[in-house]
Amino acid sequence: MDILIKILQFILSFSLLVIIHEFGHFLFARLFKTRVEKFYLFFNPWFSLFKFKKGGTEYGIGWIPFGGYVKIAGMIDESMDTDQMKQPVQPYEFRAKPAWQRLLIMVGGVLMNILLAVFIYIGMSYTWGKTYLDNKDVKYGYVYNDLAREMGFRNGDKIVDIDGEAVEDAGAIWQTIVIDQAKTVTVDRDGQRVRIDIPEEAIAQLLKSPDFATVRIPFVVGETVAGGPAAQAGLLAGDTLVSFNGESMRYFDQYRQAFETYASDTVTLGVMRDSAGITRLITLPVKVSEKGTIGVYPVSPASLLALSTHRYNFWQAIPAGIQRTGSEISSYAKQIKLMFTPKTEAYKSLGGVIAIGNIFPNYWSWEQFWRITAFLSVVLAVMNILPIPALDGGHVLFLLVEVITGRRPSDKFLERAQLFGIIILFALLIYANGNDIYRFFIK
Asked: Strand order in 64-72's β-sheet?
């Protein structure tokens, strides 16, 4: 059932994004009295799952769920209908229109995806506001993975700034360091400011380490596993661990490491327990399993740290939604730049259909659904405007050249460019989905 919910969200989101994108092309084509022969959700080689014709346009649903298209008369597109291009030019065709109209028709899809993201982010800002963990409220510091500690970070370090800029959202620290290719991070270590340099070559490794820094919390028991060592020893939900074998110890990461060291041994835990409004210290002997665990789940960081929520009225939500869309566009454009920077090895993280579908949760949440859909709408807009033949950006590039030089590329050149672009796109699709297969089924 969980996987079906994930798949349903993916199909619903993907279909909405494709329809909105293609409607952008359709809208400007109709605005400039250009004939649209087909409007399809998904691709339909050989046959369609559903179709009907109205106003000279065939609407339908294809059987290959990798996108969609509008077929505009007199245009060299993915249909590669070269026979039509050999016929005399008709006034209703794309090629008969002035360059500025053709340009708007081609960017229509990207514009609609950006507008969709703006409207979603406005709606989210108004409905749910923005809830996040403010970096200044991370009072116990962070826990760093092995890579971060090799760079010089120490568990408990509080991040002050990245390249001299203060960080507000604790959840954006890893993304900021990687996408902006940060050079330095300043931390507060026991009241002292320490600057840590981020080597340029470390970005490739950081891309594979989203657990670079996690919020540090005291060890407060959230739940014990029935029949596990902790439950047998008498640990209860709400207990706070304060010592290990007589030595003062406070944080969950410290206990996790200690349990791994003392696997299969019996240890003594000092526990603060609140009962009937009275807090008392007790000691409990606990048998650590062979795997270095005691069968305990800690409480979530959100229950120990104050979350910040920014609420917006309707008029405040509009600029907030626009600003968030701009930030997402900028952030994803930087990610694309990383993809084309070989030394970062960011191209190895490229994912296909499985990776995209996997970002949806296995439970239904409208807030999560709209957040992911808005992000994917930005992704679709940025990807489509790239100057690659067969993408909208490729057509835009040739139209800009025409506007600047006054010379229109020949149909033969456009056909060859379109074919070249299709080959590039298929290669990227094969590579991205091959990465998915390797990551999820082989590795």
From this structure: 50-54, 57-61, 36-43, 64-72
